[in-house]
Amino acid sequence: MSKMETEVIEAAVQLEADARNKLRRKRLFILLGAVVLAGALGYGTYSYSHAARFVTTENAYTAAETAQVTPSVGGIVSEVRVTDTQAVKQGDIVVVLDETDARLALEQAEAELGRSLRRVRGYVANDQSLAAQIAARRSDEKRAAAQLEAATADFDRAQVDLSRREMLVESGSVSGDELTKARNAFHTAVANLSAAQAQVTQAHANYNAALGSREANAVLIANATEQTNPEVALARAKRDQARVNLERTVIRAPVDGVVARRSVQVGQQVQAGVALLSVVPLSQVHVDANFKEGQLDKVRIGQAVEVHSDLYGKKVKYRGVISGLSGGTGSTFATIPAQNATGNWIKVVQRVPVRIELDADELAARPLQIGLSMTATIDTK
What CATH number is given to the structural domain containing 198? Predict the structure, then answer.
């Protein structure tokens, strides 16, 4: 075979190889385009049908309704039975105050209750005594009336005797001595009549005074028994309050949780209402997630949420449910709120706190402290 024929054959082979390569590259480009188009369509379909229904934020933190332990009564601290980070149960004793003052106050209140009972019994007994006095004053009034009638009769007789003797003295039938005696008897009768009238007035006044005393005493015991009398009820309430104050010298944990921010020491004088320590209920931890306002269009209470923490990583997920949305944005409740009415206003995307309740069993298995960073994803379907 000549050299020319060899070159022609090689050229033909090369042309055929180039054609096959061109066809292969064309098919590859078509395949790549189809893959890209399918991926774009798949991503678009996923974004529209699945991913679009999820909203996510990393601006989320754990929180809890922390219980502050404060004394209801003041006193000197005699015992502190807990330390920071210690787990406590509801009802556990955390602080004990010196009970001396409270115990003395209780004894005084009990003594006052006993005195009130005796005083009320005296009111009841006094009512019977005053009833007897009224009967006696009524008898005195009748006796004074009888004495007034007798004094009136003596006065009338003395007056008649004096008139007769005055008429007979001119004829000499009556001596001057008899006239004098008649006049003296008349004046005595006048005085006795005045005394009898005063006695009647006094007896009537004594009777009215006795009636008034009984009415005043009756007010103190009206419509009440010995136990329901207002004086006894007031004394009993003070006794009960003193007993409660004595019980409050023992301060107990209000909830299950972990002790935090303990500031009380033995020997410290504390006042009612001053915070001694806090109890963080780790079993009731929730998440406050701050979503952008543009993410909340389809967010509703009751929707499912998937949460994971920086503490355990993305492998540990918590199931949650939206329990509420804040009544305002975070900036509204800031210490120094934004003054958007000023001239140099710049629009800033606002965030709204969303409260997420976590599954109690998952929290028990992997506890969370408050303040941890979280990532929350809401399924808005």
Answer: 1.10.287
